[in-house]
Amino acid sequence: MSKVKYYYDSDTLSYRKIEPKKSRKVTNVALFITASLLFAFLIVLVVLNTNLINTPKELSQGRELQYMELQYDLLNKKMKQIEAVMANLEDRDNNLYRLYFEANPIPDEQRKAGFGGINRYKTLDGYNNSDLVISTTKRIEILQKQLVVQSKSLDEIAKLGAEKEKFLAAIPAIQPIRNEDLTRMASGYGWRSDPFTKARKFHYGMDFTAPRGTPIYASGDGTVVRADNSSAGYGKHIRIQHGNYGYISLYAHLSKYNVKKGQKVKRGDLIGFVGSTGRSQAPHLHYEIFKDKERINPINFYYGSLTAEEFQSMLQIATQENQSLD
Questions:
Q1: What distance in Å separates the CA atoms of residue 83 and residue 35, rounded to the nearest whole number?
Q2: Which of 37, 107, 228, 274 is most buried by its number of CB atoms within 10 A?
Q3: Is the pLDDT of residue 257 over 90?
Q4: Contact 282, 209 (CB under 8 A)
């Protein structure tokens, strides 16, 4: 209840009530309303800048942000698993696959190169979760680089593997006459007695005694480069070039051919038959191997057809300095 104010009237010698002017009332009301509005505005500002009250849009955005943070957390956990798998694959690639195929290992600097220098993540700065976003983006880019390098490495390994397979198939690796068809292994690589002159002479191949017409097989994949009798002493003979690895196998004193020059053959293919043509004392196969145009001991190239016991027996016979058959 508002207070009533009085003043003393000296003319009437009495107290009279003070009546406020209308304009003053209007001004006071206006000032009160203005002050109230300002106070209300300040209250609204304070409330809007605190977490006491959130608009529906803000609540929705808050939920979206929490969901995004959860997804980033799950993504990081999955990336840890992928990084562990990638590290294991890189380790096997360097220390198993590339080692087996005699390829140089790929250093970590090459697998993860290209992420230093200028700040490539500058556009991601300035946000509430910039550190999380930048860290995740960087890890993803490193994984992408690792995948590219690993993919190229596996392509190289596949190529080396295919080449290795061709190489292993091309090397002369089996005995050209089957054991069950042999009469005996007559003479080996080394110094022997010449059957015609009886002089001591170096024998550059191995002689396999077998009946005339016994099948002779290619000892490795390759191409027939000769099938003729125009080489002194060899009579009818075949030469097979085994790829581009420097190996050539020679089969001499044949009775007849089963292949012709330029023909491609596989290991184990029938190429001819035992005979005694050329400088030969009796039916047998004279077998030689060349490596880079130099004749080498064929005894080291039977791992594909002989057991350990059979190889040991052949080795003992081959090292005896006896008489050759050609």
A1: 64
A2: 274
A3: yes
A4: yes
